[in-house]
Each structure stands twice: as C-alpha cells, then as structure tokens.
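Re: that backbone. Tokens:
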C-alpha cells in the first residue's frame, strides 16, 4: 500500500524527530489528525517502530544525504 502525500509529509517530519505537536503546528492540522496519520502509516508499512519508518523513508529517498541500494 502506498502512502498519501500527507502521510509522506508526516513521515518526513517523524523521522526528523518532530513531536506530534510540532508536526501539527508545521502542517496546520490538529494533534489528533497527526496521530491518525501515524496510525495509518504504521499499518500501511506494517511497523510501529521508528526504525521501520526510517528504513522506509531511506529506501524511498525521503531523507537527504542517504542512499539505499539493493
């Protein structure tokens, strides 16, 4: 399952160590909405850990300075 554009934005902020409150402020959405996005991202990627989220972000080229090759 692919992530929506908003979920990708939230994921990028998560892996940059932003809290739900910081993400909500940056994206001008509620903390509850951020938490819902976090839940959906975890389900779609079948992970709840920050490591799993970061691994996905690196593989998708979402983090500057990191490359992933198979």
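Recovered sequence:
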């Amino acid at each position: 399952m692919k992530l929506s554009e908003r979920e990708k934005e939230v994921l990028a902020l998560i892996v940059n160590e932003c809290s739900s409150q910081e993400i909500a402020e940056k994206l001008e959405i509620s903390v509850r909405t951020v938490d819902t996005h976090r839940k959906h991202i975890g389900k779609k990627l079948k992970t709840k850990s920050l490591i799993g989220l970061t691994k996905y972000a690196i593989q998708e080229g979402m983090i500057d300075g990191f490359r992933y090759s198979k």
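The CA atoms of residues 15 and 54 lie 6 Å apart. Helices lie at 5-15, 20-27, 31-45, 50-59.
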